[in-house]
Write a structure and sequence with these properties.
The structure holds 2 protein chains of 2 kinds. By secondary structure, chain A is mainly alpha-helical. Chain A is built from 12 helices and no strands. In chain A, helix 3 packs across helix 7, helix 4 crosses helix 11 and helix 5 runs antiparallel to helix 9. The two termini of chain A are about 35 Å apart. In chain B, a hairpin with a 2-residue loop joins strand 4 and strand 5. The chains are: A mainly alpha, B alpha/beta.
Amino acid sequence: MTATMDAKVREAVGTADRPEPVGPLGSSLIFTHRALLKIKHVPEQLFDVTMFPILFTLMFTYIFGGAIAGSTGAYLDYLAPGILVQTVVMITMYTAMTINNDIKKGVFDRIRSLPVWRPSLMVGALLGDTLRFTMASTVILVVTMLIGYRPPGGVVGVVTAVVLLLVFCFSVSWIWTLLGLKLRSPEAVMGVSMMVLFPITFLSNVFVPIETMPDWLQPIVENNPVSILVDAVRSLMIGDPDGGSILAVLVISGVLVAIFGPLTMRSYARKN
Amino acid sequence: MSDLAIETSGLVKIFGEHRAVDGVDLQVPSGGVYGVLGPNGAGKTTVIRMLATLLKPDGGSARVLGHDVVAEAGTVRSRVAMTGQFASLDEDLTGLENLVMLARLYGFRGTAARDRAAQLLDAFDLTEAGPRQVKSYSGGMRRRIDIAGSIVVRPDLMFLDEPTTGLDPRSRNQVWDIVRALVGAGTTVLLTTQYLDEADQLADRIAVIDRGKVIAEGTTGELKASVGSGSLRVRVADSADRETAASLLAQALDAEPVLESDPYALGFTVSDPGVVPAALVRVRDHGVAISEFSLGQPSLDEVFLALTGEHVADVEPDESEHNRGEVPA
């Protein structure tokens, strides 16, 4: 190191004044910005968010459409809202992966040692994820409309449906933040979340009406939160909102945050 | 406020059955560099993580800059910074973006955050690397940007956890210079290291930790004096002569020889360096050729050997410190 570098380091250390620390909302938005920067630098991470939904939509529509609903067009009206829900709920698990990676890489330690509102890392990451969910929703809607889907609910119906979906996914993500904190590796996170997400999205009315399932299975599928969400989203996109299921989704979301929010924060504060 | 930067008493951390930190008492004065020296798994990182409020102690107490690390964790956090093995930056972001983000988190707004980040990059000779992703940085650049991230606002106390592990000699010297510059600017530095020469070079006082306990504490001079005032190292020209040289010197110096793994080398801890020349002449008079010799202060390796009966390198590394993510909360 040269003498000038030494002087510069001294100056840099010495001159740092201490501004007023940023508030909770400010720090959350800074972490949201970080999530966006990551998308900019690692655009590959959007692959799952875009390719996965496109493949699913095309596969299900053209392979199963005729068998299930008589024609691909008729099936699309049923499937589009369902596959929208399934895709976005599936990608919520990346929240857990992000947090787990931060712990592994030491970013977590640095951020926890900062004098900022501690939950802001989580809140910011979740807000960033919400943006990814929005992107995925857009992709699905564009693809389904390209192959002939015309939502009867119009713009208002579609937008309210997506907002409701985002609320639900934001709430579900708190389960994954907890998982991300508790599990040892991103691979473990992937394994556990797949074990939960596959059954919960398939044991639902995403692909087929509940009436076609065996009697013993129907009550399980009917009470699956994903089915309730699909009912609500479908009703909004059809243009005939079902107040009961919409309210139920909001209640479920509230309960999820009320339970997993505090659990996550407790685990965050105590993390070794 | 007391003039101690850190004061711990009976600090304990238990991971499962393993007492990673087993009753550590430290008094770290304000100003200067305090070294915590020990082999892998000795408990150094665990101590630092407790002092930086990242880990709750299972027993004992610790005050950092006069504040309790548990009851006043928030106050402690606002005045310390941590860098090193674990506390790190986001590899996907550029160096500049990382520093701007940290500056914003510390409360710099708008252009003030950018200006501060640019100043830090310049001071650490990273302006050119600023727009690149951190994952593309070399080890030395990584460490510099990590340290830069820790001084966005001037910390009163800085924890550096093994700051030079894995660095090439040139980068290591750069980090040492940065540490000296930090101290020059008034920051107290607590540094952990497993390198004896690093503690020797940088630290004013040293605590030697082994198996979760402090086994010695003092200035480097005091620690060395505790094992004898000087150290003589001799290499013989012919390894067959080593035994003869050892017994001759042992007699002349009244000290126990230490036979090193190098078959030509032997060492002594001597209480009176004045008798060394005569002793060496005696060896030559017996027809044993000496190829080199050196007389100096005992190295910290010898200190460690004297304290624990083991060479630093011989101590079985304990993995528990590195599996911290897998330890039940």
